[in-house]
Amino acid sequence: MDVLAEANRLKAAGNNVLSLAVGQPGNPAPLIVRDTAAQAALHAPIGYTDALGRADTRFAIAKHYADHYGVEISPDRIAITTGSSAGFMLAFLAITEPGGRIAIAAPGYPAYRNIIKSLSLEAVEIPSGDSTDNVFDLDAFLAAHREKKIDALMIASPANPTGATVSKEELTQIIEVCDREGITFISDEIYHRLNYVADDLTALSVSDDAIVINSFSKYYCMTGWRIGWMVLPQNMVRTVERLAQSLYICAPEISQIAAPKAFEASKELEEIKEVYRANRQLLVEELPKMGITFAAPPDGAFYAWCDVSKHTNDSMDFAKTMLREIYVAGAPGVDFDPVNGNHYMRFSYAGNHDAIVEAVERIKNWIGG
Length: 369
Prior knowledge:
It is a single chain. The chain is an alpha/beta fold. It is built from 12 helices and 12 strands. It has helices at about 1-10, 30-45, 55-70, 85-95, 110-120, 140-145, 170-180, 235-245, 255-260, 265-285, 315-325, 355-369; strands at about 20, 80, 100-105, 120-125, 150-155, 185-190, 210-215, 230, 295, 305, 330, 345-350. It has a 7-stranded mixed β-sheet with strand order 2-8-7-6-5-3-4, with helices on both faces. Strands 1-11-12-10-9 form a 5-stranded mixed β-sheet, with helices on both faces. Helix 1 (about 1-10) packs parallel to helix 11.
């Protein structure tokens, strides 16, 4: 946030700042979503809905699982949330008591650990695997669990900040271990449909007991609409419903009305994804020439997790200097991994292709100079 605040200050001063830092699409929501919302704003009595969400919205999401994954899910198991962030909070509260332990991967999305700590829980950060075949260190996870019981494990695939994806074989192994040890498995699938090397894999295709969290924010270009969902085991639905009633009543109804239309906008959204694909290919080809290597395979999402240790041992200083000298913003690795992140940067390629091309050129000239 310090880097982004400085980037905004430089923009306000008239500088041409290019961002490889922001974790959101540059495109608006699909046109059909915006048109539906506009009509609802004019004619629908927007108000509170059931805490679990509108029945038609839940039905549309259940249909999406059948159409996209070939997985049959009852709409009764779906809870509509105010973005995926509310889903994380509801899941943690539903399955733990104060002092409980939630395991997450490192590097990982910073808000995971912050939400966990804010709920008087302990975040147990497990290092990524040491090979391209495994993106999660299962042995380290089990060792942490043996030392002191872990209540839940949450894994994102594709992941932020790495873009790495978990194979079906690895996911199955992880879920089997969690089932055996009595550990709840939570799957963050917010970057689904942004996979460049394989088909999407939902944890629900492996286990009916997994908690799945997703949202319309990333692929569907709806970050500001604050609309997400959870798929829950049947025995957790009432608990989550009561928590949601108390915490925020319901997700915004206008977003609930409009969001399902995004499932009808695949042509528009796939065109946006093709821009991400081209941006990704540019980074894959050009960054290694600068001595910036990939610390994880950027298979999905719109992020590259890069080792910049050839140029710095202080990623925060690297980010600030890069912004100050060439007006290119990147996310320092210390946000995502407080232990080892000083050697890494996260570069987002969610932006306009011409802007990404220019940003890469500026970095190339800067490092070369």
